[in-house]
Amino acid sequence: MDDMEDYVRLTNSNELTNFVPTTHHDTYPYITPTGTELTNKSILITGASRGLGRATAIRCAKAGCAKIALAARSSLGGVVKEIEQNAREAGVAPPQILPLQVDVKSDESVRAAAKAVEEVFGGKLDILVNNAGRLYEFKPIHECDPAKWWEAWEVNVKGTFLCCHYFLPLLLKSDTKIVINFSSLGANCLTLGGSAYQASRFANCRLTEFVARDYESQDLLCITLHPGCVKTDMADDFPESLQFILVDKAELPADTVVYLCSQRREWLSGRFVCGNWDMEELEGKKSEILVKDLFKYRMTI
Known about the structure:
The protein is α/β, with parallel strands linked by helices. It contains 10 helices and 7 strands. Helices cover 40% and strands 12% of the residues.
């Protein structure tokens, strides 16, 4: 265990995870959609063809979301059918769905997607979920392929920036104005060979703080979400020795997104939220979070 802890270098990640008494690995009643949480809302989700993006789209439909834009590089036909079927099974009207072929690394591609959303969704967007991510295999820096190492940054950081850049004007026209940037608990770790993924996820957290800061006078909320440790296709490049931690279900972060977007929680804007936390218990910590200005990255002095 000591060797594993030295390999991962958790810093204070255990304290972070255990901030509330109860942690979850699957969804639970307090955050499970009832069909009304996102009534009349519009949302765009990147990386929506599979994994966490797919799960988030389905759960947002179960929450009564009226308009869902799906952004991904691969085919979205199967996801569209799943969303419609799950909405009907939940007893809610299937949402208007806008599938978009998008490469989040491409300025032109993201700009075109924003234009399409503006035209189809009536000139505004309520919620943006930056889920698209890339995990490059863990290698010491001198052994990394520079192009692949940088691609992780292009997807995780540039992609998040481009989506914020082009969709924020649409978000600012709504009353909801919520951005969720997916990151990782790995942003708080120094795992051997993890520089591409963990450092870029750290940058996501700081970008969230800047979005919240730049638009606080316009009431826009931006939150970083650690989705838990879910075994998605992206996790194929996760170190074999750490695969055992991938025990969380995709519905947990998906329903956490619904919770975070079901009402405006200004006290969480600019902050890092762990998807494993019990959200009801987190609400009980609101005063402590505000007084101590917790879950933002700072140097310890």
